[in-house]
What we know:
Layout: H1 2-11, H2 19-34, H3 39-67, H4 69-83, H5 86-101, H6 105-113, H7 125-154, H8 156-172, H9 179-182, H10 184-208, H11 211-221, H12 230-241, E1 244-246, E2 249-251, E3 254-256, E4 260-262, H13 269-301
Antiparallel strand pairs: 1-4, 2-3
Helix pairs in contact: 1-4, 2-3, 2-8, 3-4, 3-8, 4-8, 5-6, 5-7, 5-13, 6-7, 7-8, 7-10, 7-12, 7-13, 8-10, 10-11, 10-12, 10-13, 11-12
Subcellular location: Cell membrane
Family: Belongs to the CobD/CbiB family.
Transmembrane segments: 41-61, 143-165, 283-300
Amino acid sequence: MLAALLLDAWLGEPRRAHPLVAFGRLAVRIERRGWRDRRAAGLRAWALAVAPPVLAAWLLARMLGAASPWLGFAFDAGVLYLAVGLRSLGAHARPVAAALEAGELDAARAAVGRMVSRDTAALSERQVAAAATESVLENGNDAVFGALFWFAVLGAPGAVLYRLANTLDAMWGYRTPRYARFGWAAARLDDALNWLPARLAAFTYALCGRCGRALRCWRAQAPQWDSPNAGPVMAAGAGALGVELGGAAPYHGAWEERPALGEGAAPDAGAIRRALRLVRRGVALWLAAALLLGLARWSAAHA
């Protein structure tokens, strides 16, 4: 895990030939050939897209690990490096904060538009800061903690499974006429894989921030959110930061009312930067926990 995160900090996401980009193209082809307005068709398409890469990761991990522990280590670290996006999270969020600090609202709107799916052209400074902060908190789970969790549980195949499921949810998991049935499996399977990591991420935010407020917001506000996993993550994160997020947001030309998240001051550029620090502190906490568990297992094996 440490090696993968160091690679991510050093290299960032691959600019060319990222495996997730290739997987996205594969998913488009599978959808084009297999789309039917039925849940079974969506489940079959999900399995066709996900099963071969996960099986390949499992076989390679076993073969390389059997050939040499160092080859196995390098493969695991490389796969996890491709699955996490901690540096990318900052690379997308910091330009939003910098533009807000410089008073360049149009530039901030354009930058946050690369982070979120909502319409950004008419957002105020507060709404831009809220959108970016929400994205950092939610993607802290989706792009970092979820991948670390499934890697810890299932190794490289677990990280591959999680990131591919997360990618298909982003492509197919919409409640639109085209995907309401076909994308049902992608959305539900992503929810299932994210259920425990999201709650661990929410608890991590609480431990690394204003703990009592974070837990209170999680308990009171998360059940009101549409997403069973984004609700706990963002409510706890907003409470940990001491900011108020949520509220109305524009999607597809219409404003949607959303519940409030967190409590405290209105978000600004500083809230975006504090959210990034909160995620990084959480990652450090997870690495420390992994180290302690690894040392305990090593001690038990050599007792």
